Amino acid sequence: MDTVDKVNQTVLLKKGAEASLFFTVWNGRKAIMKVRVPKSYRPLALDEQIRIYRTIHEPQLMHEAKAAGVSTPLIYMVSVPHSTIIMEYIEGEQIKHLLKAAGKHERHELCRRIGISVAQLHRYGLIHGDLTTSNMILSPEGKVVFLDFGLGEKNSELETQGVDLHLLKRALQSTHFQFWEECFQSVLCGYRSVLGLEMAEKVYEKIRQIERRGRYVEERKQ
Amino acid sequence: MRYDRKLALSGFCLGIESSADDFGVGIATFNGEILANKSDGYIPAEGGIHPREAARHHGEVADKVVNEALQEAGIKPAELSCVAFSQGPGLGPSLRTGATVARVISSYLGIPLVGVNHSVAHIEIGKLQTGVQDPVTLYVSGGNTMVTAFESGRYRVFGETLDIALGNCLDVFAREAGLKHKKGLPLGAAIEQLALEGEKFVSLPYVVKGMDLSLSGLLTAATALLQKGECRLEDLCYSLQEHAFSMVTEVTERALAHTEKREVLLTGGVAANKRLQAMLNIISEEHDAKFSVVPLQFATDNGAMIAWTGVLAFRHGLVVPIDESYVKLRWRVDKVDVPWIQ
Fold it and tell me: Which residues does A82 contact at the CB level (< 8 Å), separation at least 6?
């Protein structure tokens, strides 16, 4: 069986801020190798702490997300000393690109399904921690696959659920500013369909509270 | 008072900045020369900024600073083409004092009034002074911590603090530690000095949530350790800086990777910190981006940035009638159209 050391013929797909993503072949399967490279800007102790923590937690959360009913890539291998995760390569297209090209009806449907998945995570006590449309892929089977759980956590508090959705809203605002409101409404529509009106209302109220806490928000109370 | 197309080609703009503790007046020419940049800062006897006292200070020094600026620029009031003021965001009493001074100048001289967004002004003067064109900007000060980049007509926020600002975090910790203002230096500089002698890395909360970050837990934890008295102050200053700066650097790097821009700009009062500059330089190099720091006199709150942004806005006819020139305490940078960028 291939180990992390022996995986070769890798192609750099994306040099993200936190990790580099390589396309590779792992035991005959198309795979993604996610390497959290050391960051020389921060102290060694902090750097190792962050990379080890995220390398251990990400696969755990991805695994639990499946139990919650949300599609995530299969984990093939984890190497903590290399802060590397090898996982299934998901065919398909990033939601970010799809939303930009989609018509109104299609956008609503995609966003509604994102909302359903987020609600499934929350109901199961999982927080994604970095909900952006770059971190979601629509597979050829039509499933929305969630990626990048590096900033996620196990947590059932209303506060963290509110922050999770608030971050998605902020990501829509900066990336899909032409129609972010419509997208976010569709997300909430899907979210509500899973958690029920009462629970969803509580989370919305939390989002409003979190926003009022922000800097220079018009709605903020004195 | 009407926008005059001829004036838009040549002229002088006087800008007034008064959003927080500094009262600043700058004068810019329409082709981007800064002729004057004068300021007088309010230093609290104790604690942080008291809004009423800051406003009182601004009112007392206003005519002095305006005159100094005109003198430095070597122009007469009658030669001014427009007057710009920091319309928000910021502290109400402080903003209103600057706005009042600007309205008086506008109506006395019969020249147009231009309302400028404080955060946009920080970015624009940074671009003017460093020559960068289209940067990812990290703006870190006592009141702001945000990562912005231009996208479709506005500066969009790609990351920001969910609670307190970075400069605020450092200032409060410094005050808790009993550090005093050294002449002309902010409290953050005292922390930077002590941090250089830090040896032991103390683990504190590191909170990055998606694009955003949170500093309040870090401040609480550092303050609690300080009060326990088991850690050296130098080690705490060092660890506080390393955690806080790593967070803003990680968020900036995410914005850089996401937007794929080729320039990084650091501005705001905390931009003076050498350690923060070094961290951002590293990520910029890793992403083949050019890193620039705004010179200190233009990185802290200053009148020149308002004057220059006033020029940009005025040239696009963005003048504001006096009776609509109320200040906007919560005017987010991503609510402002910037038509001068193509």
Answer: A4, A35
Query: To probe the interface with A, which of B139, B203, B208, B239 has the most A CB atoms within 10 Å?
Result: B208
A34-78 tens-digit pLDDT? 999 999 999 999 999 999 999 999 999 999 999 999 999 999 999
The model carries a pTM of 0.89
pLDDT band at residue A88 under the 50/70/90 scheme: very high
Closest chain B residue by Cα to residue A209? B162
Residues of B in contact with A46 (CB under 8 A): 201, 203, 206, 242-243, 246
Marked catalytic residue, from A5, A130, A148, A164: A130
Kindly provide the ipTM of the predicted complex, given to two decimals: 0.84
What does the block give as tokens for A144?
Answer: 């929305």
* Angle, CA of B293, A215 and B140, to the nearest 5°: 15
**Whether A130 is catalytic:** yes
Q: Shortest CB distance from B144 goes to which of A15, A50, A215?
A: A215
Enter the tokens of residue B162: 């969910």
Based on the number of CB atoms within 10 Å of its own CB, is B181 exposed (0-12), middle (13-18) or buried (19 or more)?
middle
The alpha carbon dihedral of B329, B330, B332, B336 has a sign of negative
* Closest alpha carbon to A18 in A9, B138, A42, A26: A42
Q: Nearest residue on chain A to B331, judged by CA atoms?
A: A216
The one-letter code for the residue type at B122 is H
Inter-CA distances, B26 with B88, B225, B320, Å = 17, 43, 19
Give the residue from chain B lying closest to A219, CA to CA.
B330
Q: How far apart are CA B193 and CA B328, in angstroms?
A: 36
